[in-house]
Amino acid sequence: MAAGAKKLPFWADAILLPALNLLAAFLVSGIVIWALGEDPFLALSLLIDGAFGFEEAISYTFYYATNFIFTGLAVSIAFHAGHFNIGGEGQAMLGGLGLTLAVFLFSGLSPFLAVIMAIIGAALFGAAWAYVPAYLQAKRGSHIVITTIMFNFIASSLLAYLLVGPLQRPGGQMPESADFPEGASLMPLHEIFGMFGKTFEDGPMNVSLIIALLCAVGVWFLLWRTRFGYELRVVGQNPNAAAFAGVSVSKMTIIAMMISGALAGMMGLNELLGQQHRLLGGFTLGYGFVGIAVAFMGRNHPVGIILAALLFGALYQGGAELAFEMPTITRDLIIMIQGLVILFAGALEHLFRDPVTKIFTKIQTTKEGAA
Q: The whole model's pTM is what?
Protein backbone atom coordinates (compact mmCIF):
# COMPACT_ATOMS: atom_id res chain seq x y z
CA MET A 1 0.00 0.00 0.00
CA ALA A 2 1.29 3.48 -0.89
CA ALA A 3 2.20 5.71 1.96
CA GLY A 4 -0.37 8.30 0.92
CA ALA A 5 -3.12 5.67 1.09
CA LYS A 6 -2.50 4.93 4.75
CA LYS A 7 -4.82 6.60 7.20
CA LEU A 8 -3.51 9.35 9.44
CA PRO A 9 -4.70 9.88 13.02
CA PHE A 10 -7.73 12.17 13.18
CA TRP A 11 -5.83 14.98 14.88
CA ALA A 12 -3.12 14.89 12.21
CA ASP A 13 -5.63 14.97 9.37
CA ALA A 14 -7.89 17.60 10.94
CA ILE A 15 -5.32 19.86 12.62
CA LEU A 16 -1.73 19.15 11.56
CA LEU A 17 -2.22 19.14 7.77
CA PRO A 18 -4.33 22.34 7.68
CA ALA A 19 -1.77 23.99 9.98
CA LEU A 20 1.07 23.03 7.60
CA ASN A 21 -0.91 24.37 4.63
CA LEU A 22 -1.52 27.62 6.48
CA LEU A 23 2.15 27.86 7.45
CA ALA A 24 3.18 27.37 3.82
CA ALA A 25 0.78 30.12 2.70
CA PHE A 26 2.17 32.53 5.29
CA LEU A 27 5.74 31.56 4.37
CA VAL A 28 5.20 32.42 0.70
CA SER A 29 3.39 35.61 1.73
CA GLY A 30 6.29 36.51 4.01
CA ILE A 31 8.76 36.11 1.13
CA VAL A 32 6.66 38.47 -1.00
CA ILE A 33 6.47 41.03 1.83
CA TRP A 34 10.23 40.75 2.40
CA ALA A 35 10.83 41.28 -1.32
CA LEU A 36 8.86 44.53 -1.04
CA GLY A 37 11.29 45.71 1.63
CA GLU A 38 9.03 45.21 4.63
CA ASP A 39 9.51 43.08 7.73
CA PRO A 40 7.27 39.98 7.37
CA PHE A 41 7.28 39.34 11.14
CA LEU A 42 6.13 42.89 11.82
CA ALA A 43 3.47 42.46 9.16
CA LEU A 44 2.22 39.27 10.81
CA SER A 45 2.20 41.01 14.18
CA LEU A 46 0.15 43.89 12.77
CA LEU A 47 -2.26 41.48 11.10
CA ILE A 48 -2.88 39.55 14.32
CA ASP A 49 -3.21 42.75 16.36
CA GLY A 50 -5.59 44.16 13.76
CA ALA A 51 -7.79 41.09 14.05
CA PHE A 52 -7.71 40.44 17.81
CA GLY A 53 -5.82 43.32 19.45
CA PHE A 54 -8.83 45.42 20.51
CA GLU A 55 -12.56 44.91 21.01
CA GLU A 56 -13.75 46.59 17.82
CA ALA A 57 -11.33 44.46 15.79
CA ILE A 58 -12.60 41.30 17.50
CA SER A 59 -16.17 42.33 16.67
CA TYR A 60 -15.33 42.77 12.99
CA THR A 61 -13.38 39.51 12.88
CA PHE A 62 -16.32 37.55 14.23
CA TYR A 63 -18.68 39.52 12.00
CA TYR A 64 -16.82 38.37 8.88
CA ALA A 65 -16.44 34.86 10.32
CA THR A 66 -20.22 34.59 10.70
CA ASN A 67 -20.68 34.91 6.93
CA PHE A 68 -18.08 32.23 6.34
CA ILE A 69 -19.67 29.83 8.82
CA PHE A 70 -22.97 29.98 6.92
CA THR A 71 -21.40 29.56 3.47
CA GLY A 72 -18.88 26.96 4.68
CA LEU A 73 -21.64 24.84 6.19
CA ALA A 74 -23.59 25.18 2.94
CA VAL A 75 -20.68 23.82 0.90
CA SER A 76 -20.09 21.06 3.45
CA ILE A 77 -23.63 19.67 3.37
CA ALA A 78 -23.59 19.43 -0.42
CA PHE A 79 -20.09 17.93 -0.40
CA HIS A 80 -21.08 15.17 2.02
CA ALA A 81 -23.83 14.27 -0.46
CA GLY A 82 -21.26 14.04 -3.24
CA HIS A 83 -21.95 17.43 -4.84
CA PHE A 84 -20.02 20.65 -5.30
CA ASN A 85 -22.29 23.62 -4.64
CA ILE A 86 -20.74 26.66 -6.35
CA GLY A 87 -24.00 28.58 -6.05
CA GLY A 88 -23.63 29.96 -2.54
CA GLU A 89 -23.44 33.52 -3.87
CA GLY A 90 -26.73 33.29 -5.73
CA GLN A 91 -28.45 31.41 -2.93
CA ALA A 92 -27.31 34.09 -0.46
CA MET A 93 -28.68 36.80 -2.77
CA LEU A 94 -32.07 35.12 -2.96
CA GLY A 95 -31.95 34.55 0.78
CA GLY A 96 -31.45 38.28 1.21
CA LEU A 97 -34.44 38.91 -1.04
CA GLY A 98 -36.63 36.52 0.95
CA LEU A 99 -35.46 38.15 4.17
CA THR A 100 -36.29 41.63 2.88
CA LEU A 101 -39.75 40.70 1.64
CA ALA A 102 -40.56 39.06 4.98
CA VAL A 103 -39.40 42.14 6.91
CA PHE A 104 -41.61 44.52 4.93
CA LEU A 105 -44.54 42.11 4.92
CA PHE A 106 -44.64 41.34 8.66
CA SER A 107 -43.11 44.41 10.32
CA GLY A 108 -46.53 46.05 10.50
CA LEU A 109 -47.72 43.25 12.75
CA SER A 110 -44.72 42.96 15.04
CA PRO A 111 -40.99 43.67 14.69
CA PHE A 112 -40.20 40.42 16.53
CA LEU A 113 -42.46 38.46 14.17
CA ALA A 114 -40.79 40.22 11.23
CA VAL A 115 -37.36 39.05 12.42
CA ILE A 116 -38.54 35.44 12.87
CA MET A 117 -40.20 35.41 9.45
CA ALA A 118 -37.11 37.05 7.92
CA ILE A 119 -34.95 34.17 9.18
CA ILE A 120 -37.42 31.68 7.76
CA GLY A 121 -37.70 33.65 4.51
CA ALA A 122 -33.95 33.74 4.03
CA ALA A 123 -33.71 29.97 4.47
CA LEU A 124 -36.71 29.23 2.24
CA PHE A 125 -35.62 31.47 -0.63
CA GLY A 126 -32.07 30.10 -0.49
CA ALA A 127 -33.40 26.53 -0.49
CA ALA A 128 -35.78 27.27 -3.36
CA TRP A 129 -32.96 28.73 -5.45
CA ALA A 130 -30.87 25.61 -4.86
CA TYR A 131 -33.82 23.32 -5.67
CA VAL A 132 -33.74 23.95 -9.42
CA PRO A 133 -30.07 22.93 -10.00
CA ALA A 134 -30.63 20.00 -7.62
CA TYR A 135 -33.67 18.85 -9.60
CA LEU A 136 -31.84 19.20 -12.90
CA GLN A 137 -28.96 17.10 -11.51
CA ALA A 138 -31.20 14.45 -9.98
CA LYS A 139 -33.77 14.13 -12.76
CA ARG A 140 -32.09 15.40 -15.93
CA GLY A 141 -28.40 14.72 -15.36
CA SER A 142 -27.32 18.35 -15.64
CA HIS A 143 -24.02 18.88 -13.85
CA ILE A 144 -24.64 20.73 -10.61
CA VAL A 145 -21.38 22.68 -10.80
CA ILE A 146 -22.39 24.27 -14.10
CA THR A 147 -25.99 24.99 -13.11
CA THR A 148 -25.13 26.50 -9.73
CA ILE A 149 -22.51 28.76 -11.32
CA MET A 150 -25.02 29.98 -13.90
CA PHE A 151 -27.66 30.53 -11.24
CA ASN A 152 -25.27 32.95 -9.52
CA PHE A 153 -25.44 35.20 -12.58
CA ILE A 154 -29.21 34.87 -12.80
CA ALA A 155 -29.58 35.77 -9.12
CA SER A 156 -27.30 38.78 -9.52
CA SER A 157 -29.26 40.03 -12.52
CA LEU A 158 -32.59 39.48 -10.76
CA LEU A 159 -31.43 41.37 -7.67
CA ALA A 160 -30.08 44.22 -9.82
CA TYR A 161 -33.42 44.51 -11.64
CA LEU A 162 -35.41 44.57 -8.41
CA LEU A 163 -33.15 47.15 -6.73
CA VAL A 164 -33.35 49.61 -9.60
CA GLY A 165 -37.06 48.92 -10.03
CA PRO A 166 -39.77 47.57 -7.73
CA LEU A 167 -37.69 47.43 -4.55
CA GLN A 168 -35.58 50.56 -4.98
CA ARG A 169 -35.68 53.13 -2.20
CA PRO A 170 -38.30 55.77 -3.12
CA GLY A 171 -36.47 58.75 -4.59
CA GLY A 172 -33.12 56.97 -4.32
CA GLN A 173 -30.42 56.61 -6.96
CA MET A 174 -28.51 53.65 -5.51
CA PRO A 175 -29.36 49.94 -6.01
CA GLU A 176 -30.76 49.48 -2.52
CA SER A 177 -34.11 49.05 -0.82
CA ALA A 178 -35.72 51.31 1.75
CA ASP A 179 -34.47 50.94 5.31
CA PHE A 180 -36.01 48.18 7.34
CA PRO A 181 -38.63 49.38 9.85
CA GLU A 182 -37.47 50.24 13.35
CA GLY A 183 -36.94 47.15 15.50
CA ALA A 184 -36.77 44.72 12.56
CA SER A 185 -33.14 43.81 13.11
CA LEU A 186 -30.88 41.44 15.01
CA MET A 187 -29.49 42.80 18.25
CA PRO A 188 -25.76 43.60 18.33
CA LEU A 189 -23.89 41.40 20.77
CA HIS A 190 -22.35 44.35 22.59
CA GLU A 191 -25.89 45.34 23.66
CA ILE A 192 -26.50 41.82 24.95
CA PHE A 193 -23.22 41.96 26.87
CA GLY A 194 -24.39 45.25 28.37
CA MET A 195 -27.59 43.61 29.61
CA PHE A 196 -25.40 41.33 31.71
CA GLY A 197 -23.22 44.15 32.98
CA LYS A 198 -20.33 43.45 30.61
CA THR A 199 -19.00 46.34 28.56
CA PHE A 200 -17.84 45.71 25.00
CA GLU A 201 -16.98 48.26 22.35
CA ASP A 202 -19.57 48.90 19.65
CA GLY A 203 -19.16 46.75 16.57
CA PRO A 204 -21.07 44.86 13.87
CA MET A 205 -21.01 41.47 15.62
CA ASN A 206 -24.64 40.49 16.22
CA VAL A 207 -27.02 37.67 17.13
CA SER A 208 -26.53 36.03 13.72
CA LEU A 209 -23.21 34.71 15.08
CA ILE A 210 -25.17 32.69 17.65
CA ILE A 211 -27.54 31.51 14.92
CA ALA A 212 -24.57 30.43 12.78
CA LEU A 213 -23.08 28.46 15.68
CA LEU A 214 -26.45 26.80 16.31
CA CYS A 215 -26.59 25.88 12.61
CA ALA A 216 -23.12 24.31 12.95
CA VAL A 217 -24.34 22.21 15.88
CA GLY A 218 -27.43 21.27 13.86
CA VAL A 219 -25.35 20.21 10.86
CA TRP A 220 -23.10 18.10 13.09
CA PHE A 221 -26.12 16.41 14.68
CA LEU A 222 -27.82 15.89 11.33
CA LEU A 223 -24.78 14.34 9.64
CA TRP A 224 -23.41 12.16 12.44
CA ARG A 225 -26.32 11.47 14.78
CA THR A 226 -29.26 10.75 12.48
CA ARG A 227 -30.18 8.05 10.02
CA PHE A 228 -30.77 10.71 7.37
CA GLY A 229 -27.23 12.00 7.84
CA TYR A 230 -25.80 8.51 7.55
CA GLU A 231 -27.72 7.89 4.32
CA LEU A 232 -26.61 11.26 2.98
CA ARG A 233 -22.95 10.45 3.62
CA VAL A 234 -23.34 7.02 2.05
CA VAL A 235 -24.81 8.62 -1.07
CA GLY A 236 -21.84 10.96 -1.20
CA GLN A 237 -19.27 8.19 -0.83
CA ASN A 238 -20.89 5.52 -2.99
CA PRO A 239 -24.20 6.32 -4.71
CA ASN A 240 -24.39 2.84 -6.26
CA ALA A 241 -24.14 1.17 -2.86
CA ALA A 242 -26.68 3.61 -1.46
CA ALA A 243 -29.12 2.84 -4.27
CA PHE A 244 -28.58 -0.89 -3.75
CA ALA A 245 -29.43 -0.41 -0.06
CA GLY A 246 -32.69 1.28 -0.96
CA VAL A 247 -31.70 4.93 -0.55
CA SER A 248 -33.10 7.27 -3.19
CA VAL A 249 -30.04 9.04 -4.58
CA SER A 250 -32.09 11.62 -6.48
CA LYS A 251 -34.21 12.44 -3.42
CA MET A 252 -31.13 12.75 -1.24
CA THR A 253 -29.49 15.03 -3.82
CA ILE A 254 -32.44 17.39 -3.82
CA ILE A 255 -32.82 17.49 -0.03
CA ALA A 256 -29.10 17.97 0.60
CA MET A 257 -28.88 20.81 -1.92
CA MET A 258 -31.93 22.52 -0.47
CA ILE A 259 -30.40 22.38 3.03
CA SER A 260 -27.20 23.74 1.52
CA GLY A 261 -29.11 26.56 -0.17
CA ALA A 262 -30.96 27.37 3.05
CA LEU A 263 -27.69 27.75 4.95
CA ALA A 264 -26.21 29.96 2.24
CA GLY A 265 -29.41 32.02 2.17
CA MET A 266 -29.10 32.68 5.88
CA MET A 267 -25.87 34.58 5.30
CA GLY A 268 -28.08 37.61 4.74
CA LEU A 269 -29.03 37.56 8.41
CA ASN A 270 -25.61 38.87 9.31
CA GLU A 271 -25.15 41.37 6.49
CA LEU A 272 -28.69 42.72 6.12
CA LEU A 273 -30.65 42.03 9.29
CA GLY A 274 -27.68 42.49 11.59
CA GLN A 275 -25.75 45.37 10.02
CA GLN A 276 -27.03 47.12 6.88
CA HIS A 277 -30.76 47.05 7.70
CA ARG A 278 -31.66 47.26 4.03
CA LEU A 279 -31.19 45.13 0.93
CA LEU A 280 -28.11 46.11 -1.08
CA GLY A 281 -26.98 45.04 -4.52
CA GLY A 282 -23.90 42.81 -4.34
CA PHE A 283 -24.04 42.49 -0.56
CA THR A 284 -22.59 38.97 -0.76
CA LEU A 285 -19.10 40.30 -1.66
CA GLY A 286 -17.77 36.88 -2.68
CA TYR A 287 -18.46 35.23 0.68
CA GLY A 288 -20.14 32.32 -1.09
CA PHE A 289 -16.96 31.49 -2.99
CA VAL A 290 -14.68 31.89 0.04
CA GLY A 291 -17.02 29.46 1.83
CA ILE A 292 -15.66 26.74 -0.48
CA ALA A 293 -12.14 27.24 0.88
CA VAL A 294 -13.50 27.48 4.43
CA ALA A 295 -15.28 24.14 4.07
CA PHE A 296 -12.25 22.37 2.60
CA MET A 297 -9.82 23.84 5.09
CA GLY A 298 -12.18 22.76 7.86
CA ARG A 299 -12.29 19.24 6.39
CA ASN A 300 -16.07 19.67 5.92
CA HIS A 301 -16.62 19.23 9.64
CA PRO A 302 -18.60 21.92 11.53
CA VAL A 303 -15.86 22.42 14.14
CA GLY A 304 -13.21 22.77 11.46
CA ILE A 305 -15.45 25.12 9.48
CA ILE A 306 -15.88 27.40 12.52
CA LEU A 307 -12.11 27.54 13.02
CA ALA A 308 -11.44 28.12 9.31
CA ALA A 309 -14.13 30.82 9.22
CA LEU A 310 -12.44 32.54 12.16
CA LEU A 311 -9.13 32.42 10.29
CA PHE A 312 -10.62 34.04 7.20
CA GLY A 313 -12.43 36.57 9.35
CA ALA A 314 -9.08 37.45 10.89
CA LEU A 315 -7.51 37.75 7.43
CA TYR A 316 -10.25 40.12 6.30
CA GLN A 317 -10.16 42.35 9.37
CA GLY A 318 -6.44 42.05 10.16
CA GLY A 319 -5.59 42.54 6.50
CA ALA A 320 -7.47 45.84 6.40
CA GLU A 321 -5.56 47.06 9.46
CA LEU A 322 -2.26 45.84 7.98
CA ALA A 323 -2.86 47.73 4.75
CA PHE A 324 -3.54 50.87 6.80
CA GLU A 325 -0.43 50.52 8.98
CA MET A 326 1.90 49.48 6.12
CA PRO A 327 1.07 51.51 3.01
CA THR A 328 3.50 49.40 0.97
CA ILE A 329 1.21 46.43 1.53
CA THR A 330 -1.79 47.39 -0.55
CA ARG A 331 -5.28 45.92 -0.42
CA ASP A 332 -4.42 43.91 -3.54
CA LEU A 333 -1.55 42.27 -1.67
CA ILE A 334 -3.90 41.37 1.18
CA ILE A 335 -6.18 39.70 -1.37
CA MET A 336 -3.13 37.82 -2.67
CA ILE A 337 -2.39 36.54 0.86
CA GLN A 338 -6.00 35.41 1.17
CA GLY A 339 -5.67 33.73 -2.22
CA LEU A 340 -2.53 31.89 -1.10
CA VAL A 341 -4.38 30.56 1.93
CA ILE A 342 -7.18 29.40 -0.36
CA LEU A 343 -4.64 27.86 -2.76
CA PHE A 344 -2.78 25.88 -0.11
CA ALA A 345 -5.94 24.95 1.83
CA GLY A 346 -7.93 24.00 -1.26
CA ALA A 347 -6.07 23.15 -4.44
CA LEU A 348 -2.94 22.00 -2.59
CA GLU A 349 -4.85 20.40 0.29
CA HIS A 350 -2.82 17.17 0.08
CA LEU A 351 0.58 18.80 -0.51
CA PHE A 352 2.00 17.57 2.81
CA ARG A 353 -0.08 14.39 3.17
CA ASP A 354 2.48 11.94 1.77
CA PRO A 355 5.48 13.25 3.75
CA VAL A 356 3.46 13.39 6.98
CA THR A 357 2.04 9.92 6.37
CA LYS A 358 5.54 8.51 5.81
CA ILE A 359 6.70 10.03 9.11
CA PHE A 360 3.75 8.55 11.00
CA THR A 361 4.26 5.18 9.29
CA LYS A 362 7.93 5.17 10.28
CA ILE A 363 7.08 6.06 13.90
CA GLN A 364 4.44 3.34 14.04
CA THR A 365 6.82 0.77 12.54
CA THR A 366 9.49 1.73 15.08
CA LYS A 367 7.02 1.33 17.96
CA GLU A 368 5.87 -2.06 16.70
CA GLY A 369 9.50 -3.21 16.30
CA ALA A 370 10.34 -2.09 19.84
CA ALA A 371 7.31 -3.97 21.18
A: 0.92
